[in-house]
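User: Could you walk me through two proteins back to back? I'd like the raw sequence and the structure tokens for each, with a short line separating them so I can tell where one ends and the next begins.

Assistant: Of course. Protein one, sequence then structure:
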Amino acid sequence: MEITQILGFIGALIIGLVLGLTGGGGSILTVPVFVYILHINPVTATAYSLFVVGSSSAVGAIDNFNKGRIDFKSSLIFALPAVIAIFSTRKYLLPAIPHHITNVGSFELTKDLMIMSFFAVLMLIASASMILKKKKECIDCDNKPTETKNGLMIFLGALTGLVTGLVGAGGGFIIVPILVFLAGLNMKEAVGTSLFIIAINSIIGFLGDLGHMEIDWVFLILFTIISVVGIFFGIYLSRFINSHKLKKAFGWMVLVMGIYILWMELSGSGI
């Protein structure tokens, strides 16, 4: 086994640990691990990420289902347009984007550069959601779903599906606030429902890639198993560690990584 593979599997364990310790966020590391450690091209990396994120989220969704924290009505309203968008993006939109997109002077915009730059921007947004102090839930607010809110959820579901399809990230930091403010769920229900939605979105999105690329199933399944083991280990460690402080620290790390990836890609010293 090569050193890059060993480092990649260590990365898989860390991804699982972060997910188990903080309840989310670790999936944002999957694409960078695949691209910069294992040297997998960005399009394939986003597909692999969808499989890992989907499998990992399914583990968390099962646990939340057993605790009664999944709202299936909200899941259906949000996930149906998201699934259509993500499958269409992976099956038709992404393969249709040419490798060379355009030139602006000496700057060449390629498909890989676009994906990784967009992903880096997503990392910056995700890091802000982890670092910034979240507002407390408003118990007395009128958060009951309405036709207008449901319509907005359908639109945002489709938009989230498009983003997830392009970059291979789960998007929990986008989904949770939507479920809290538009579906009227409490935070625990929103997190549980979000994991359920992410699991469905990611697996369906991955299915859209089948037939477009060659999948190394042995490697991908092994990577996923190690990540899931990391989740259980992280859940155990979370009993002894302050997850809120850890998530904030992880947010700063994601911020630095996002800035570095963006700089590296735009400066032309990336892949």
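----
Protein two, same layout:
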Amino acid sequence: MATEQPEQRTWRRPTAFYNHYVKWAVYVVITVFLLWSAWNMRISPARIMDGWNAAVGLVEGMVPPEYTTQFKNELLIEGLVESLAMSVIATIVGVIISIPVAFMAAENIAPKPVYWTGRGIITVSRSFHELIIAIIAVKAVGIGALAGVIALSYKTVGFFAKLLAEEIEDIDSGQMEATEATGANRVQTMLFGVIPQVMPRIIGLTIYRWDINIRHSTIVGIVGAGGIGATLLNSFDQYDYDFFLTIIIAIIAIVMVGELISTYIRGRIQ
């Protein structure tokens, strides 16, 4: 009796596309779009060389950095301290606002109207860059650190609330049900059935957002929202490139210290 031969199968690499024709059509569209983008930017070898020569001249004007003038050192220290203060205050204010918004935006614990309201707040907060918010805040409250705190707090809500809401949606519902079984009301269930599960995440996200706000606090000052950014922009506008480099080095040092602190604290918590 003849035995049946097993069916021969050939392996093909999995693809996310409907078929190979669609895949190559997408590749062609992407390639054409990239070529059109490069052409539309009018990039030319002469322009690249001019930019390279200007960059070399800029670097030569920066070296060595300026740190001998007492007045400039005072400006530098004052700007850095203000940036650090802005990042701390903005993080605290933003987190306080973000926590209830995150509970509103968690689908497993919020009614649908509340859920969509919370998601809408997060979407609006994430839609605009902090520089745009800083410009609006400067127009509203004037030049200074308050405008920077408003801008950074605003951006903190979109970042913090979104990630915390996703964490709340992944909690163990059994702990909530056990809390409710004891006769706890809605607020008590949130306090003792939800918050203990997400508290490590809240602390970790707070430290992480503070680290981000340190970096962003050095930028919003460019539009007059306080911090070291204003000093940075003024030094560049006055062609004081050596002091500009000093500020850049100081910003890098502050960001690195903040990164080390946040990494250590997150590691201890986790």
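Residues 70-104 form the longest helix (35 residues).

Let me know if you want the two compared in more detail.
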